[in-house]
Amino acid sequence: MPLDYTTLARTIASLTEAETDAVALMATVTCEVFHADDRFDWVGFYRVTAPGLLKIGPYQGGHGCLQIPFGKGVCGVAAQSGAVQLVPDVEAFPGHIACASSTRSELVLPVRDAAGKIIAVFDLDSDRPDAFTQADVTGLAEILDATFAR
Ligand code: SME
Question: How many domains, in total, are found in the chain?
Answer without folding.
Answer: 1
